[in-house]
Amino acid sequence: MRPWLAALCVGALSSAIAAGAQEPPASIDRGLSVKYPGDRGIERDPAVLFADGFESGDLEKWDEDQAGGDETRVRVITDSKLAFHGMHACQMTATRGKNNGGGLIEWLGEGQDELHARFYVRFAEDAGYTHHFVHINGSPERWGSFGKAGLKPEGDDFFTTGIEPWFDWGNNAPPGKWMLYTYWPDMKASPDGQHWGNGFHPESGVLPRGEWICVEIRVRMNTVGEADGEQTVWQNGKQIGHFTGIRWRTSEKLKANVFWLMSYVTERAFGHTEQHAAKHGLKVNQKTYTVWFDQVVVATEYLGPLQMAERR
Q1: CATH architecture of 18-299
Q2: What sign for the dihedral angle of Cα 51, 52, 53, 55?
């Protein structure tokens, strides 16, 4: 059995003190995607490591399908009304009492010192809270960044950071606000003495349901011996978080080499959604949690939103 499930924390979230948080600019940043309207041909750009708009109708481009081909958990849907662009999108669904959703992994060779991942996501109208979401990882060993929940990296073994909808213990309405959930050598311990991922908080409002959101995350590895690493978040082309002063590694061998498209929803997450609804006098029928992904691109430079495509 692959150790991906063991990578997901079950403990309390630690708070991170992030140096150099930056105010978002007023204008939309323009990147590599400007040269490729509709992302047509973007996969051939030298800066692009992986791209999937799911127009093939399958998941063959991905190295790992963690749902094991179970289409009730992860599948490509054919519906222009649901897809952001074209006819297809990837649907991930967690069904309460049966499964926790699923994920897709792309291995990126020896890795990069700077990595960008852009994707579009749409939360279902009834989406509640999730447990973990989309990650960038790094390790010299293929599965070395998995199965590390509660452990602090040594600097030469692994790191992981994920863009996740954060519920803030029910203070944020579902599906939550963006947060970077991060493991790195200088992370702080939780009150229980273990090292659950620390949180970096972009300037994010509560995420909308039923509409497409363009998300891009960036990791820049530090110079060995210096704390000059960074991570950045853009939403719909606007930078909403820039965190600096991060010491990701103590060895040049540690690079960003895993992209993990994931929607992982536990019984605990379903329960928190019900608690929030009860507190606010709302009715929920939390049996499933569904999100859609589209126009995934992983590259070594800033991508920006897809160009010349109507957002639905």
Answers
A1: Sandwich (2.60)
A2: positive
